[in-house]
Amino acid sequence: MRIGSAAYLPSPTLASPSSRGSLSGAATESSSSLRSSSATNDRSLSTGTRADVRDGEGAASARATRQQEQQDLQEIAELAARDREVRAHEQAHAAVGAAYAGSPSYSFKRGPDGQSYATGGEVGIDVSAVAGDPAATLRKMAVVQRAALAPADPSAQDRRVAAEAAAQAGQALVELAQQRREEASEETASKAAARAKSEDESSSSASPAANQDLGIYLQVASPSALGPLLDTRA
């Protein structure tokens, strides 16, 4: 027997109220069961959709995290390379500048890893002339020029310092030439004075002998000194 089948239905006159109630209850239960099953499927579908959404969001978040990590690593590599370049540049200035250069100072940037990296720097250098000594100024400016152009890639500021040192050296050359002309003139005057003094001393030492010779000459040339004249006439 199949419950609910249309092939066989009991007569209404023979059916008891309890039987009808039982059938009605069975039909109601079946309907409820169908509704419950439908609701369960709806919930299953809804739960699956939410899980897919969560999985998609998680994958997107993971991709974003990986991209950020790659960007951080690239930035760190660039900062590290810049740090090495800056330090080498400034240390070249300081090493060649020696006594005329100061210690390097740096500006820093904090990287994604929390470390500080040098992104700029400078070294102070003395380009003043040596007072009263153009030769020393020339030597100093030669060192300053080498220090300014020591890095592999001198900056515009480095080239300006080198140009200023060259200008100071040019001025020192002019002063040195003038100084040497003055020294040569003084030396010539000194030699002339020494020669004149030497001639004066020679003249003074020769005067007594000359006076004596002059006296002898005068004595011989005097008529009284000649004695009686001889008459040579026959």
What does this structure look like?
It contains three helices and two strands. Among the domains are: 59-124, no CATH class; 126-192. 69% of the residues lie in helices and 6% in strands. The chain has a two-stranded antiparallel sheet. The N and C termini lie far apart (220 Å). It has 234 residues and is mainly alpha-helical. The model is unreliable at 1-34 (pLDDT under 50). It is rod-shaped, with a radius of gyration of 61 Å. Strand 1 and strand 2 (116-122) form a beta hairpin.
List the defining traits of the structure above.
234 residues; mainly alpha; two-stranded antiparallel ribbon; 69% helix
Residue runs with pLDDT of under 50 for 5 or more positions: 1-34
Number of strands: 2
In percent, how helical is the residue content? 55-70%
Residues in β-strands, percent: 5-15%
| DSSP summary: helix tally | 3
Alpha-carbon distance between the termini?
220 Å
Helix and strand pattern: HEEHH
Shape: rod-shaped
> Which strands sit side by side, in order, in the main sheet?
1-2
Biggest sheet: strands, sense, closure?
Answer: 2 strands, antiparallel
Instruction: Please identify the structural class as seen in this structure.
Output: mainly alpha
Mean of all residue-level pLDDT scores: 77
Tell me the Rg in angstroms. Answer: 61 Å
Organism: Pseudomonas solani
Region (Disordered): 1-74, 176-210
Protein name: SprA-related family protein
Pfam families: SprA-related
